[in-house]
Specification:
Oligomer: heterodimer
Radius of gyration of chain A: 32 Å
CATH topology of chain B: Arp2/3 complex 21 kDa subunit ARPC3
CATH superfamily of the domain at 25-163 in chain A: Rod shape-determining protein MreC, domain 1
CATH architecture of chain B: Orthogonal Bundle
Order of helices and strands of chain B: HHHHHHH
Structural class of chain B: mainly alpha
Distance between the termini of chain B: 34 Å
Radius of gyration of chain B: 15 Å
CATH class of the domain at 25-163 in chain A: Mainly Beta
Shape of chain B: globular
Number of domains of chain B: 1
Number of strands of chain B: 0
Number of helices of chain B: 7
């Protein structure tokens, strides 16, 4: 085997190196459409077995996690079912409330996110669903928390999604109160911090308080109306008399998401009902709990009444029995209401 | 079988193993940003054994695969991997001793530089680059270097490296 000193730095190496650098530079300066086309062709041909392998690995990992989750839910439900049967139905209802896929009225395709080792993972995501499942470019990608991004290009079984962290991402948005509208874009400045969004183009006359939820407006024909984009955390800058720019805390994190839904329906549908706010969910849950408690109290009252009736009948029966036989004085048991419970 | 040909076969087998680990084992590990980059370890092992030109070509192909799967900026990964592959092979031939710890550290440093170059070439903002330099890059580099150390220990006969520090 050749040692380090035996290796020679030859002309062939230099030529090969400059050839590789040249090819890389050509790929770098080529139009985005060409790059995406080459990437799609590679994913469908040479890299198809590797993507298939990764899809199966990802499914294996998430399947284990889902199995553990389902097992834990089943165990919890079984435990609760032994003592409080009504909570089992309550759990089922809550799961239904939290299940985004059941709330969505439009068509969607579920996909795994195949995270890559490159530093740019999170700006674009490789998804395990492609054109054969009905996915096409410009389909919105969402998670239960909110907007993730948009499909950039598709191959037969995979697709590339541009997330909100990508510098070219834009979405038309408005506040949930409807008092301000603008465009949401990723923040790349040091002042706003990494992983933040900016709500730009808000008219100077409109002010948005911190904590306001910002939703997609449906303008532009790409994203449906009503998908949560983020929450206002503060003012970034303002141009006097012209516009204000607000900082947003994103609703969903593309870096850690493992499973997404690709909306394949026309963007004209309003999805606001599919993403209820936390307060609405809490209110629904409290209402449900009150109804269950009321039902439980009625059942308990009926049970107490039946017990009291049985107790009363037993006392009457005991009083009557010694008088009929005549061999012993009647003994009345202490009148405790809960003796038969 | 000729020794040179046997070495090439061993290298191909090692590289295929790294591909399998990258696409089948890596998704099952912990966070994707700090898991070892097995494909990069394969590239560096190849760079340790081959000429700079071949290492540059291997870097181009590894970068092409990476760019096809996450085309944030097509070509950025190709150029970064080409430069790192070439520099690794050339630098080892000129500067570095056949020492297993030095080689493992070399892999970690190469990964850190590769990620930094990829971010710079793909036009990332200053905050993501800072986070990469300070947090994710070092964590991923340490994980990758640790794995490279295991691989080099297991296959030191192939790579002609010494165990003494």
């Amino acid at each position: 085997m050749a040692s380090a000193s035996d290796r020679s730095y030859t002309r062939r190496d230099t030529v090969l190196f400059f050839l590789c650098v040249g090819l890389s530079v050509v790929a770098l300066v080529a139009p985005t459409r060409v790059g995406l086309g080459v990437a799609g062709a590679l994913r469908q041909t040479v890299l198809a077995p590797l993507v298939w392998l990764q899809v199966h690995a990802e499914e294996g990992r998430t399947s284990r996690a889902r199995f553990r989750e389902v097992t834990a839910q089943r165990d919890s439900s079984s435990y609760l079912a032994q003592g409080l049967p009504s909570l089992l139905a309550e759990n089922e209802r809550l799961r239904q409330l939290l299940s985004l896929s059941r709330r969505l009225s439009s068509s969607y395709v579920a996909a795994e996110v195949l995270h890559q080792s490159t530093a740019t993972d999170g700006r674009t995501l490789l998804l395990s669903a492609g054109s054969s499942q009905g996915v096409s470019p410009f389909d919105p990608v969402v998670s239960p928390e909110g907007l993730i991004g948009v499909v950039l290009s598709t191959a037969e079984r995979t697709s590339i999604a541009m997330t909100w962290a990508h510098p070219e991402f834009r979405v038309s948005a408005f506040t949930v109160t409807g008092n301000a509208a603008g465009v949401v874009a990723p923040s790349l400045s040091a002042a706003s911090g990494e992983g933040a969004l900016e709500f730009r183009g808000v008219p100077y006359r409109d002010s948005v308080p911190s904590g306001s939820l910002v939703l997609s407006s449906g303008l532009g024909g790409v994203y449906p109306k009503g998908i949560p984009v983020g929450t206002v955390t503060g003012l970034v800058r303002e141009q006097a008399g012209w516009e204000r720019v607000y900082r947003l805390l994103p609703a969903a994190n593309p870096g850690s998401v493992g499973h997404v839904l690709i909306l394949v329906a026309p963007p004209s549908t309003d999805l606001a009902a599919a993403f209820p706010s936390d307060s609405l969910l809490q209110a629904q849950r409290l209402d449900s709990l009150l109804r269950e408690r009321r039902a439980d109290s009625l059942t308990q009252a009926a049970r107490d009444a039946a017990a009291a009736r049985r107790d009363s009948l037993a006392r009457v029966h005991r009083r009557a029995t010694p008088a009929d036989s005549g061999d012993a004085p009647a003994r009345v048991p202490p009148a405790t209401g809960d003796s038969t419970r | 079988m000729m020794p040179a040909r046997a070495g090439r076969v061993q290298m191909v087998v090692a590289f295929l193993l790294m591909l399998l680990l990258q696409f089948y084992v890596r998704p099952r590990l912990w966070g994707p940003r700090v898991s070892p980059d097995f494909l990069f370890v394969g590239l560096m092992l190849l760079a340790l054994r081959s000429s700079p030109g071949v290492a540059a070509l291997a870097g181009l192909l590894v970068g092409l695969a990476g760019d096809a799967l996450t085309p944030a900026r097509f070509g950025a990964g190709m150029l970064a991997n080409t430069l790192v592959g070439y520099a690794a092979s050339w630098g080892r031939a000129v500067f570095f001793a056949d020492n297993i710890l030095v080689n493992a550290a070399f892999v970690g440093a190469g990964l850190w530089v590769r990620d930094l170059l990829t971010l710079l070439l793909s036009g990332a903002g200053d905050r993501p680059i800072l986070a990469e330099i300070a947090v994710y890059g070092p964590l991923e580099a340490v994980a990758t270097a640790a794995f490279a150390l295991l691989v080099l220990l297991a296959s030191r006969q192939w790579f002609s490296v010494r165990l003494d520090a």
